[in-house]
């Protein structure tokens, strides 16, 4: 059994699970400790180089900058790929709100790169049922949010001939194989185990307790008979944020008992709030994040007013001491979205030495983010209801490995 | 006939097709008035001009080139294809009346001021087999009716052009460049770059992106057969975006530099520097933007097909 979380958390320790992410004592998340505690592996540079060699193109900026920094058995995926054995991608979103911010797009941007680079199919799960249960929203509202979110996801540029998007409410009930897998998985996880992994209590309703198999089932190709029938041997790679790890720890534990491959994971760190890593990105505070609906003016304003700066209080002090790059949000955001490695290096050097001022860095960030958001908005505008229907239709994908 | 609608008086003379002024003179030379010679010219930036002059007026292309601000030797006779494509007239039939065509909207017209000294002048309408004589004032009427201001020029004048004396005919240079697909200087025959020259923008213009996109599908299949270990990433996509970016850069730098300096060598050096610095950025932008557009086009097409297909199914009995 792999290392996992303890049932009893030390009060001061950081908390990372699918529903809560808090750092220790209001500090920063310690990713090394997290990797250690979860038992996953660091994504080291040799692996990134290997990806470059296998795909014949430069690795995605998120790989180069260590945004996707941890994995489970990603090397096994690459080994199989080298031998000509393909895999499929599985990622998802809990549609709890209509407004998506840039942090939400991160896993999807990365997944699109993986789809293009490796030329593999992708299933995207919209867990509208989960949000219905956890956020106490109505079923209809969650279904609606799922469809709206699907449009933003599609706008990230997924290939419709290789992508299947499904909402749990739509798909799970109508599909016999999926439910069968859910039951198979559920049989392998004791109540105590699921409480231990997810921290359920006697007060939590049974919907919550019964949910984990639903997020686990897409890891197995037999859950999608219209796509992967006869391909029980197909491996699965799951790009996700590291807070989702518990679900898939559980799944990996169950897989061998069902005769399936363990799904592999490639995990990202958290996208910081504008106010800093200690701040919480919350849907209720629109100023904690840049939304895909923000205009250039709003973006510029938010960055200037709210982005936590690592620069010094005065220009003189700044020129003397330089900026604190550890806590500076604009630089952190640039490391996510500024593609040019050389330019980022230059900014870090100059800003860190105090030769470049905060205003300049913030301006550059505003330009970069505006471009990302504009491009997204344009792509989003091209997504029609019919396109969403087509992406979500239960249909075969004959060219999914082309 | 348009001229009649405009109330323009003219005399029409039909004759066998003529290709030269001399040949035309055989038929209408004795009718008084002036014969016109019409030159269809092109500059290095693919801008086109009709110079319409009395047969006797001396037209020096080198002088004209300088007066237009194109430097020495910046203007020459336009290729034959352009005649058909832009003016829609056969060889030997260049005429101000050709400007009635939409395709000629960016062609500039220079009229000999000596036309005004003649009672009437001879031009071809749109055919070599006819000559019509009109008064200069009536020619003006025609031009105005198609939205053109007649520009009369002293074609034999040779004013000095230099730092303190700007080229006097520069305002007659058209604002739009036109690409003729077969023209030899066009290095990317498969691309139709948009008609106006434009400053470097971050967004691709839809027309030019379309041509990139339409050229791409052919590259999709060969790549599908590539083994994953193949080190060459989609070579066609890269090559096309490079050509596209090169074309933009070439046109932009030429335009900019012609404004800055007349020294050709300096222009070359500056152009190379600009290209070196801008090309990689633009290529990346183009590639990401175009690949996103490509996938959106693909998704849209699939959706339409899917929708049509799913609505065509016979109802289950």
TrEMBL record, chain A:
Gene Ontology, cellular component aspect: cytoplasm
Chain segments annotated as transmembrane: none
Top-rank EC class of the record's enzyme: ligase
A Pfam family: tRNA-synt_1b
InterPro entries: aa-tRNA-synth_I_CS, aa-tRNA-synth_Ic, Rossmann-like_a/b/a_fold, Trp-tRNA-ligase
Subcellular location: Cytoplasm
Keyword Cytoplasm in annotation: yes
Keywords associated with the record: Aminoacyl-tRNA synthetase, ATP-binding, Cytoplasm, Ligase, Nucleotide-binding, Protein biosynthesis
GO annotation (BP), single: tryptophanyl-tRNA aminoacylation
Similarity-based family: Belongs to the class-I aminoacyl-tRNA synthetase family.
Protein name: Tryptophan--tRNA ligase, cytoplasmic
Automatic annotation (TrEMBL), chain B:
Top-level taxon in the UniProt lineage: Eukaryota
Polar residues composition bias: residue spans: 185-194
Domain YbaK/aminoacyl-tRNA synthetase-associated: 15-142
Ranges where the record places region Disordered: 154-237
SUPFAM superfamilies tied to this protein: YbaK/ProRS associated domain
Molecular function in Gene Ontology: aminoacyl-tRNA deacylase activity
Family annotation (Pfam families): tRNA_edit
PANTHER family documented for this protein: PROLYL-TRNA SYNTHETASE ASSOCIATED DOMAIN-CONTAINING PROTEIN 1-RELATED, YBAK DOMAIN-CONTAINING PROTEIN
Membership in a protein family: Belongs to the PRORSD1 family.
Protein name, as recorded: YbaK/aminoacyl-tRNA synthetase-associated domain-containing protein
């Amino acid at each position: 059994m792999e290392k996992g979380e303890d049932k009893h958390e030390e009060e001061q320790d950081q908390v990372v699970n699918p529903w809560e992410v808090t750092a220790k004592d209001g500090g920063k998340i310690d990713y090394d400790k997290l990797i250690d505690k979860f038992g996953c592996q660091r994504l080291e540079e040799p692996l990134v180089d290997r990806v470059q060699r296998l795909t014949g193109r430069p690795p995605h900026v998120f790989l180069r900058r260590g945004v996707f920094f941890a994995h489970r058995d990603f090397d096994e995926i690459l080994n199989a790929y080298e031998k000509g054995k393909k895999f499929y991608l599985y990622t998802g979103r809990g549609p709890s709100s209509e407004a998506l911010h840039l942090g939400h797009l991160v896993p999807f941007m990365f997944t699109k790169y993986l789809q293009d680079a490796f030329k593999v199919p992708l299933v995207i799960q919209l867990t509208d049922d989960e949000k219905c249960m956890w956020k106490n929203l109505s079923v209809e509202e969650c279904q609606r949010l799922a469809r709206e979110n699907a449009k933003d996801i599609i706008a990230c540029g997924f290939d419709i001939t290789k992508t299947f998007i499904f909402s749990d409410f739509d798909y799970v009930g109508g599909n016999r194989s999926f439910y069968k897998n859910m039951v198979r998985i559920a049989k392998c996880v004791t109540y105590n185990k699921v409480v231990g992994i997810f921290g359920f209590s006697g007060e939590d309703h049974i919907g919550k307790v019964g949910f984990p198999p639903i997020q686990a089932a897409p890891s197995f190709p037999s859950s999608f008979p219209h796509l992967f029938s006869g391909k029980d041997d197909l491996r699965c790679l799951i790009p996700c944020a590291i807070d989702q790890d518990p679900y898939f720890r559980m799944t990996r534990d169950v897989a061998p008992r069902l005769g399936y491959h363990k799904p592999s994971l490639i995990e990202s760190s958290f996208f910081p709030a504008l106010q800093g890593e200690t701040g919480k990105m919350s849907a209720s505070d629109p100023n904690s994040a840049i939304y895909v609906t923000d205009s250039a003016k709003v973006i510029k304003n938010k960055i200037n007013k709210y982005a936590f700066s690592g620069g010094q209080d005065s220009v003189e002090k700044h020129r003397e001491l330089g900026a604190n790059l550890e806590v500076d949000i604009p630089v952190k955001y640039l490391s996510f979205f500024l593609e040019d490695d050389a330019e980022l290096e230059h900014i870090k050097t100059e800003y860190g030495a105090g030769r470049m001022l905060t205003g300049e860095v913030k301006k550059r960030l505003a330009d970069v983010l505006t471009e990302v958001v504009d491009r997204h908005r344009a792509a989003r505008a091209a997504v029609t209801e019919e396109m969403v229907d087509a992406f979500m239709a239960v249909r075969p994908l004959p060219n999914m490995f082309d | 006939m348009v001229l009649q609608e405009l109330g323009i008086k003219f005399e029409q003379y039909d004759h066998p097709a003529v290709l030269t002024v001399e040949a035309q003179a055989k038929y209408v030379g004795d009718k008084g008035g002036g014969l016109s010679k019409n030159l269809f010219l092109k500059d290095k930036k693919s801008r086109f001009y009709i110079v319409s002059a009395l047969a006797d007026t001396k037209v020096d292309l080198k002088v004209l080139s300088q007066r237009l601000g194109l430097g020495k030797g910046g203007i020459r006779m336009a290729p034959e294809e352009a005649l058909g494509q832009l003016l829609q007239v056969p060889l030997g039939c260049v005429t101000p009346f050709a400007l009635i065509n939409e395709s000629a909207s960016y062609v500039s017209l220079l009229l000999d001021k000596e036309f005004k000294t003649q009672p009437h002048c001879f031009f071809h309408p749109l055919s070599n087999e006819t000559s019509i004589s009109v008064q200069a004032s009536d020619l003006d009427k025609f031009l105005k009716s198609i939205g053109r201001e007649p520009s009369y020029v002293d074609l034999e004048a040779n004013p000095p052009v230099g730092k303190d004396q700007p080229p006097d005919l520069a305002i007659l240079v058209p604002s739009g460049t036109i690409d003729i697909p077969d023209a030899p200087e066009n290095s990317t025959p498969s691309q139709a770059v948009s008609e106006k020259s434009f400053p470097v923008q971050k967004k691709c213009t839809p027309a030019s992106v379309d041509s990139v996109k339409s050229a791409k599908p052919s590259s999709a299949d060969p790549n599908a057969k590539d083994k994953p270990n193949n080190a060459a990433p989609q070579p066609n996509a890269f090559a096309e975006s490079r050509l596209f970016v090169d074309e933009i850069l070439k046109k932009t730098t030429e335009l900019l530099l012609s404004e800055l300096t007349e020294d050709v060598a300096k222009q070359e050096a500056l152009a190379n520097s600009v290209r070196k610095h801008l090309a990689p950025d633009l290529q990346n932008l183009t590639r990401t933007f175009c690949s996103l557009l490509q996938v959106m086009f693909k998704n849209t097409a699939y959706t339409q097909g899917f929708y049509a297909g799913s609505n065509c199914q016979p109802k289950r009995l």
